[in-house]
Amino acid sequence: MFDRYEAGERAVLVHINFTQEGEWEDLVEFEMLVSSSGVQSLQVITGSRQSPHPKYYVGEGKAQEIAEAVQREEADVVIFNHALSPAQERNLEQLCHCRVLDRTGLILDIFAQRARTHEGKLQVELAQLRHISTRLIRGWTHLERQKGGIGLRGPGETQLETDRRLLRDRIKAILRRLEKVSKQREQGRRARRRAEIPTVSLVGYTNAGKSTLFNRITEAGVYAADQLFATLDPTLRKIELKEVGPAILADTVGFIRHLPHDLVAAFKATLQETQEADILLHVVDASDERFRENIHAVHEVLEEIDASEIPTLVVMNKIDNLEGQKPRIERDDEGIPTTVWVSAMADLGMDLLFEALKERLASQMVEYKLQIPPAYQGRIRSVFFEKQCILGEGYDEEGNLLIDIRMQNADWQRLEKREGAVLRDFIVT
């Protein structure tokens, strides 16, 4: 279907430093991505520019240098640490006579290798198809093209149009199957809400140690490795917290700077575990010099998936790699735990993490007894019913609804904001 060079496992890497802040990428992280994909790096070509060149992304002289390096090293593929346009990819392939891959294509390739479950494979395929659909070029050259006039009329649709239609059909089919998976996940979440089981979701930059921490807490035996994107498929396990009871812990896919939008869209079903969580455990690699930038990158993705308002407990992991750092809990001015310093690998500070998590979850629940007049009963009761937070209900002699509720404080605050001060008046002290 695609008139492209075949890619191999021997690569020339290209990293350009830009003066524009928005174009900045990290060379060390890029080399880790390439290593995680199983590709052998033959040479790293670096350079500086103010802005990308429209034809080759790099300047013409640098493009020629890349082509010479490919020939000299006998490389199969050129990998850029940047997002290339379809035209730039095509121009570079014509110049280098080998496959050219950008940062998005590299991340997609890693995801394709890591996907284990049926859902994960579907999500990766969807992201790949969306990426490829913008890069469709000349189809099989022996086929006719559309032409006008007597004797020049070809088939009703060109090969390029056929390819696009096939891609569209496949994308629709995958979306239908993912919708089914999403509904199944929603049923599970509804059952947990009905049982009032809080969900704790692990989030963080890729390779921050989420899966190791998950295994330490749950003894689940989830695959964990010192490589980027070791986890793709979400894993859920039940844990017990003192004074809170059972909770669900979810291990999710790691985030990365400039995570491709196609991937965020494709992994919507997986990321819903994060969106629907009662609290996020934001795992940070404390030994990484760039941990502040990594925290910022995670916040950007959380905003993109509408999860930035969820209460968060920061877990500074890998303190065994730092000198003088001991397990501890940091609290805000009100005494609420905000950060826990631990090492999942060395089993340091796990008791403190449980303590902080217990405090945060217990503080997030509110219980009220309400007396609601008939005029407000229908609307407000339906909201409580939807939230599945009703503990008991009845009516007094005047027809007022007496209702006991237990719900997340965040949900109560949102409801109070919507209904105004009137809701506060219904509380029976």
TrEMBL record:
<dbReference type="Pfam" id="PF01926">
    <property type="entry name" value="MMR_HSR1"/>
</dbReference>
<dbReference type="InterPro" id="IPR016496">
    <property type="entry name" value="GTPase_HflX"/>
</dbReference>
<keyword id="KW-0547">Nucleotide-binding</keyword>
<dbReference type="GO" id="GO:0005737">
    <property type="term" value="C:cytoplasm"/>
</dbReference>
<comment type="similarity">
    <text>Belongs to the TRAFAC class OBG-HflX-like GTPase superfamily. HflX GTPase family.</text>
</comment>
<dbReference type="InterPro" id="IPR035647">
    <property type="entry name" value="EFG_III/V"/>
</dbReference>
<keyword id="KW-0342">GTP-binding</keyword>
<keyword id="KW-0963">Cytoplasm</keyword>
<comment type="function">
    <text>GTPase that associates with the 50S ribosomal subunit and may have a role during protein synthesis or ribosome biogenesis.</text>
</comment>
<dbReference type="Pfam" id="PF19275">
    <property type="entry name" value="HflX_C"/>
</dbReference>
<feature type="binding site">
    <location>
        <position position="231"/>
    </location>
    <ligand>
        <name>Mg(2+)</name>
    </ligand>
</feature>
<comment type="subunit">
    <text>Monomer. Associates with the 50S ribosomal subunit.</text>
</comment>
<feature type="binding site">
    <location>
        <begin position="317"/>
        <end position="320"/>
    </location>
    <ligand>
        <name>GTP</name>
    </ligand>
</feature>
<dbReference type="InterPro" id="IPR006073">
    <property type="entry name" value="GTP-bd"/>
</dbReference>
<keyword id="KW-0460">Magnesium</keyword>
<keyword id="KW-0479">Metal-binding</keyword>
<dbReference type="Pfam" id="PF16360">
    <property type="entry name" value="GTP-bdg_M"/>
</dbReference>
<feature type="domain" description="Hflx-type G">
    <location>
        <begin position="198"/>
        <end position="365"/>
    </location>
</feature>
<dbReference type="Pfam" id="PF13167">
    <property type="entry name" value="GTP-bdg_N"/>
</dbReference>
<dbReference type="InterPro" id="IPR045498">
    <property type="entry name" value="HflX_C"/>
</dbReference>
<dbReference type="InterPro" id="IPR032305">
    <property type="entry name" value="GTP-bd_M"/>
</dbReference>
<dbReference type="InterPro" id="IPR030394">
    <property type="entry name" value="G_HFLX_dom"/>
</dbReference>
<feature type="binding site">
    <location>
        <begin position="204"/>
        <end position="211"/>
    </location>
    <ligand>
        <name>GTP</name>
    </ligand>
</feature>
<dbReference type="GO" id="GO:0043022">
    <property type="term" value="F:ribosome binding"/>
</dbReference>
<dbReference type="GO" id="GO:0046872">
    <property type="term" value="F:metal ion binding"/>
</dbReference>
<feature type="binding site">
    <location>
        <begin position="251"/>
        <end position="254"/>
    </location>
    <ligand>
        <name>GTP</name>
    </ligand>
</feature>
<dbReference type="InterPro" id="IPR027417">
    <property type="entry name" value="P-loop_NTPase"/>
</dbReference>
<feature type="binding site">
    <location>
        <begin position="229"/>
        <end position="233"/>
    </location>
    <ligand>
        <name>GTP</name>
    </ligand>
</feature>
<feature type="binding site">
    <location>
        <position position="211"/>
    </location>
    <ligand>
        <name>Mg(2+)</name>
    </ligand>
</feature>
<dbReference type="GO" id="GO:0097216">
    <property type="term" value="F:guanosine tetraphosphate binding"/>
</dbReference>
<protein>
    <recommendedName>
        <fullName>GTPase HflX</fullName>
    </recommendedName>
</protein>
<dbReference type="InterPro" id="IPR042108">
    <property type="entry name" value="GTPase_HflX_N_sf"/>
</dbReference>
<dbReference type="GO" id="GO:0003924">
    <property type="term" value="F:GTPase activity"/>
</dbReference>
<dbReference type="GO" id="GO:0005525">
    <property type="term" value="F:GTP binding"/>
</dbReference>
<dbReference type="InterPro" id="IPR025121">
    <property type="entry name" value="GTPase_HflX_N"/>
</dbReference>
